[in-house]
Prior knowledge:
Blueprint: H1 13-24, H2 30-33, H3 36-41, H4 48-59, H5 66-73, H6 80-84, H7 91-105, H8 110-122, H9 128-137, H10 144-147, E1 166-170, H11 176-179, H12 182-193, E2 196-199, H13 209-213, H14 217-236, E3 247-249, H15 252-258, H16 261-264, H17 272-281, E4 282-284, H18 289-296, E5 306-309, H19 313-318, H20 324-331, E6 335-338, H21 353-356, H22 358-373, E7 383-386, H23 389-396, E8 403-405, H24 406-415
Parallel strand pairs: 1-2, 1-3, 3-4, 5-6, 5-7, 7-8
Helix pairs in contact: 1-7, 4-7, 5-7, 12-24
Amino acid sequence: MQTQLSPQYQGTPDGQTAEAILRNCVHCGFCTATCPTYQLLGDELDGPRGRIYLMKQVLEGTPPTRKTQLHLDRCLTCRNCETTCPSGVQYGHLLDIGRKLVDEQVPRPNGEKALRWVLKEGLPSPLFAPAMALGQLTRRLLPHALKNKVPTKQDAGMWPTRQHSRQVLLLAGCVQPAMSPNINSATARVLDAAGIQTIIAPKAGCCGAVKFHLNDHEGGMAEMRANIDAWWPYIEGAGGQPGVEGIVMNASGCGATVKDYGHILRNDPAYAAKAQRVSALTQDISEWLPELSQTLRPHVKARASKIAWHPPCSLQHGQQLKGDVEKYMVELGFNLKITGCEPHLCCGSAGTYSVLNPDIAYQLRDRKLGHLNATFDGGQPDQIVSANIGCITHLQSGTATPVRHWVEVLDEALQA
């Protein structure tokens, strides 16, 4: 796509990146067919191709409007379009730039501005955990919309205490320890059963995605740098001891972001090389399944319950990881299946999207649950599993069927 950047963007890092991405787009429209918001709304400007044209106009000097902002806001950033695109257009990176440039020129209503501030400052805050605990304590009294965001209190179980020569880092995350603490401890127990010790660096916090995707790029990058600093001693090793084997992610949204540190911090002379190394070391816990399935198979006591698998967008599109969970969980003896209808489409969670765009988010949730409930012939699944805390919480708000992380199911079978 031919692009003539406005002088104010020529030669800037954002301008150069955006221009390179735009030039790869051939306007074929394949992306539109797999865009969740286009399927629901039927508006070209609510699909990737239309949004690309909006961002191209801004980069070429056309002043954006509130309408431009709304169309970009309605994107889920599911990156399904990247999986579909035959030209390799990095739409997610372009959207980050486009949203930032539009927000710099189009003021938001005060209420919207306040909500976005609460989300970007509140979710990564140390105050989130006590606020969630209070919400769980008073959950029955909460209004329905707020109750959807507050899962019932969960027991984290025991953290393994054995020492192993093989070690990995685990990002605890900002909301997961308060909302579903068992996911982290289950991950540690599964790895411990395979002879791998899990370490959480005390000073590592939010992956940076919340602030970055709410257009606070500087705040998000500050959190990314803080994580790199917290992890670096473990990566380098000390006292002649080797560094950790990798950085394990059990929230696929965080994993997609940390794997992108190298790109996001590429222009930071102090952190570019370290960010590249961190991204290279980062793996979703599902990427360990080929090894784990071999080691743990004799110890797994799988049950016959029917398990429907929902692959998050951040796993299948953001990280381009497909097939491992269903393949290896079946090999381990689980009756796990992926839905045959629209498994590629977003469930509507998408980070803070379900708070900022609840109408679209709940339509997508109910559509997804309908497909998940039809995964098995002759009845609904006994449980639904996913790989991202946002998807798990969002789907659980619309069903009585338990929704869990697949690693919790594997851990439970090992404990049995």
